[in-house]
Structure formats: C-alpha cells, structure tokens
Amino acid sequence: MKIRVLGAAAGGGFPQWNCNHPNSRRARSRDPRAVPRTQSSISVSSDGVRWFLFNASPDLRQQINDSEVLHPTQGLRHSPIQGVVLTNADVDHVTGLLTLRESQAFNLYATTRVLAVLGANSIFNVLNPDFVQRLPIKLEESFELLGPEGYASGLMVKPFSVPGKVALWLEDATKGPNFGSVEEDTIALEVSWRNSRQRIFYIPGCAEMTATLAARIRGADLVFFDGTLWVDDEMIRDGVGVKTGKRMGHMSVSGPDGTMAALGSLGIRRKIFIHINTTNPILLDDSAERKSVNDAGWEVAFDGMQIALP
Ligand code: MLT
Ligand code: MN
Q1: How many A from CA of 76 to the centre of ligand 2?
Q2: Which residue from 44, 90, 99, 252 has the highest number of Cβ atoms inside 10 Å of its Cβ?
C-alpha cells in the first residue's frame, strides 16, 4: 500500500491568495523553512501504478503535474487515476473534480448526501456520466476501491461519520442547530488491504474527539488527522478572520481538549497532521509549535510526502 500526499494545507492553501499573515508572507518569499503547500488531498495505491484520490482539491492540476506517478503513460488519453473518494463537499475537497474533465473514466465515491450536492450543481456535469460513475457509499460499510474497467485494487475502505458540519458554502442558518448538518456531511475513511493487518485512517476534518472515534483509531498503524488550527481562536487572535476553529468544524492541535492530547495515548504508530491552515505555526519548520508537535510524536504533512506500508 502506497500513499502520496498531494496537498497538505487547508482550504485556501499555504499561502492563501489574499493572506498577508506573517506565515503566508514567509511562504511567498520562498523562505526554505516555510514551504508552501497546496490544498488537502492524498492519493493511495496498492500497486504504485493505479491510484485513487481521497478528495479532489482545487490544486489538483498542479498536484498531478508535480506527481510523476499520476501522469498519463499510455496512448493519447490516459490517467493512472482510477477513482476519487470524497469526505465532504468542501470547496477544497470537491472543486478538483472540475479538473478531471471530461471523458476520462473513473469512479467517484461519496455519501448520498454529498452526491446530492454535486447532482444539484450542473457544473459537475463536466464529468461525462458515460465515463464517470457516481457510486454512493454507506457509513460503516466497507467497499473495495475499484477502477472503471474492472480493476480491483484490493484496498478496502470503510467510511464513517465524524463530528463536523455541512460545507461552508452550504451553511443555512434556517436549518437549525449546526446548519442542519447530518452524519453523512463529514466522513472519514479507514483503509485496509489484502494480506495485511494494518489499518490506516484519513480524517482531514473533525470537530471533536469522541469516545467512539478514539476507540476506533486506537492502535492504528497510521492516522492522518485534521491539523487546521493550532488554537481555536487563532484566526481571530491573528486578526485574519472572525471564526473560531469550532465554528468551522475543526478541533485544534494544542490545548487540553486538542488533538495532541486526544491522540497521545491511543497507541497509534504514526500520526500525521494534514489540512493545515495558513495561520497555523506548525507549518513553519523553525517554530516552537512545530517542535512541540514533533516532540509529541507527530509529523506535519507536506506536498509530495510518500509513505509505503507493507
Ligand atoms: C473547512 O475545512 O473548514 C473548509 O474548507 C472551509 C472553507 O471552505 O474555507
Ligand atoms: Mn477544508
């Protein structure tokens, strides 16, 4: 099983286009300790040849160009990308689908809820339905990642709900608490594969650590986890926004109810932050916050990061 991080930053990327925060300025000035990152997505493969994307970021075109394994190799029209699995309908997770225009076969997996969002927006018809199958996935039901022409990857994915909310652009305050969000709005993915007892998790957005979630990921071989903010009021404190992390559906990295504390004692072999906001000091190689996550056994994902698991 192979993983390649295509993008490690949260929505907007690092640096975000209109952001003049000191972090973004450092990234923009090509400071070697503030390495730019595109918006969050990983690709997974069992053979290193055929790949599945977990989420499709607006930076997907650049991510493909930067990843040789995703380049066409056969004939005049070809892609190693066999499918895409969506964890929600966030802009940073679905708009890359528009890059995958238009008559290239692949399978698109998402919950019924997220497929309905795509179905309601005709711009996604750029994915020719004769070539792109939209396949509903069900919470807690494992499925095998399949390619469009009968390719069976041997990679098993179990989608499950995590605390969160509907995508920002779908928020509707009239729909009640948490904008009427339902379980299928924010999911995470557990991946296992043939002839291996390893389990890995992809959790790019999570609002809270529950006992159920902690029990599920305990003892995992690898967890990619929501690293959006260092502290809940970071964007307010730094004067770049008005929302807390909680309001955006993200738990923070630090603090007594933060991610480091919550995952510290779960016996997870490898823990990696992904979906990291441009304001988060863990993006800076020389920050005290980076040192403290590293000291706690965490890695900070970067574009092009490669992982191979037996
Ligand atoms: C999020 O992860 O909170 C969203 O991507 C927010 C956004 O779209 O900016
Ligand atoms: Mn996001």
Answers
A1: 34
A2: 90
Helix (H, G, I), strand (E, B) or coil at 188: strand
Cα 94 to ligand 2 centre (Å): 10
Closest residue to atom 5 of ligand 1, CA basis: 11
The neighbouring-strand residues paired with 50 are none
Return the percentage of the chain with pLDDT > 70, whole number. Answer: 100
| Residue 227 and residue 289 in contact, taking contact as beta carbons nearer than 8 Å | no
Q: What is the pLDDT of residues 155-212, one digit of tens each?
A: 999 999 999 999 999 999 999 999 999 999 999 999 999 889 999 999 999 999 999 9
Q: Which residues line ligand 1 (CB under 6 A)?
A: 10-11, 90-92, 168, 205, 248-249
Q: How far apart are CA 47 and CA 49, in angstroms?
A: 5
- State how beta strands 41-45 and 132-137 pair: unpaired
The domains located in the chain, with CATH, are 2-308 (3.60.15.10)
- Encoding tokens for residue 218? 């305990």
- Strands, DSSP E only, in 167-233? 187-193, 200-203, 222-226
With beta carbons less than 8 A apart as the criterion, state whether 200 and 223 touch: yes
Residue having the nearest C-alpha atom to atom 3 of ligand 1: 248
Ligand 1 centroid–CA 168 distance in Å is: 6
- Give nearest CA residue, ligand 1 atom 7: 11
